[in-house]
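cron nightly-structures :: item 1 of 1
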Amino acid sequence: MPSYDFKRVADPIHGTIGLSELEAQIMHTQVFQRLRNVKQLGLAHYVYPGADYSRLSHSLGACHVTGRILEALRRNGDNFEISEDDFQLYRVAALLHDIGHYPFSHAMEEALASYYVKLAEATQGSKVSVNTQRKPLNHEKVGKEILNRDGELCKVLSKNGIDTNRLHKVFNHHEDAFFLANIISSDLDADRIDYLLRTARHTGLPYGSVDLDYLLSQMNVDEHNRVCISAKAVRTADHFLLCRYFDYQQVSYHKTVAAFEMVLKDVISALLEAGKIKGSAMDVKEMIDNGKWHRLDDAQVMQRIIELADDRRADNNNRLKAQAILERKPPKLLHKKEYLKAREEGERTGLLFVKRTIQRQIAEWSEEFGVDESLWYLWHKAGIALTNVGSSVPVSSIVERTEEDENRLAQAIYVQEGLSHPTRPIVELNYSLLNPLSNFALYSLRLYVLLPPGKEELLDKIKTRVRDFF
């Protein structure tokens, strides 16, 4: 049985985090230490100065919370059994769940996807799929490549008998994964718990007052080997999901954070086009093989942004965007539209129609005010829901479920109302606040403009014209 006090790490969220010898060895690998230089929240620290914590600290926290959940299941479940090897495997899965994230995380991942699609269209026509070697990998697939290719990490894992294929299935919630997979990926998993607690502490926002101790005391395993909570903890779980929803609205989707993220995507695309950074599938695999992946972090990309801002040969709009990031000068908000409605495809379609209408109008405003179209930004989220599944149609009762239904259902929080009753998703309980709220989503659209030097005085005129249009 491994000791989880081989190494102790002081943590502002959990107090002291104990690690096994294997976990300490993983922590000291270069590929894991790289996460020290990748911020969890991208550019959110431009709004919340303390929100600059790393994916390394979050990964340690997720590992710790996973261990606490497993220990709670051992205490609470009369028939619950888990081998020491599996106990360690789950903690390692949580420790490595973010190993494949790019610098600036989702912003760079989305920029890569967009860039290579546009590159394929420009070189081969509009109806072509991106070449497999050129197509970028999402962070989950990068994680898999790291598990298979990084020599130092592979040596540590194999020496300790860790099956990398099984490990990858666990932290990606693969259908072949064995029991308890929703510890790593669900509406109430170790990742989300640590994220919410850690983000609240570092932003100073009040959305992290989750009663984790009580949740742990009410966790068990159901007849399908899923982690569930007792009916007594429904209110606590409701509170957790509401806190997570408000956190997303105030942090990830904050108007200024969202604006900077859109500018950052454009700047990353410009760097890709100039060959200053690389990100195709082939490039990433090569970087993992030769060790250059260890240095691909926020600091390296930020240095490229500095070089772009200083490069007088570069496109003026790209230089302006780079300078906006370096000098913290976000695009100005011109209009926003937000409303809560049913989470239906028709509502999504309606918002996308409004988006296309505004996109056409931007061309006219661009010509009228002499501000290039690339400096106008349209941000939208067509349906931000509290949960992965709603309650209007009880998915758990559908006999013929699609793969999408199965995936969404696997993400739900399950509640055990009694030993003689099967567990049900929390959204199906009429005494849960999520029962009605899960059927609604927030639809949000915002229009911004980044004004070049000398045109700042146009802002009021542009706002008036946009207001008149809407």
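cron nightly-structures :: done
Strands lie at 7-11, 15-19, 219-221, 227-230, 332-342, 376-385, 414-416, 424-425, 440-449.
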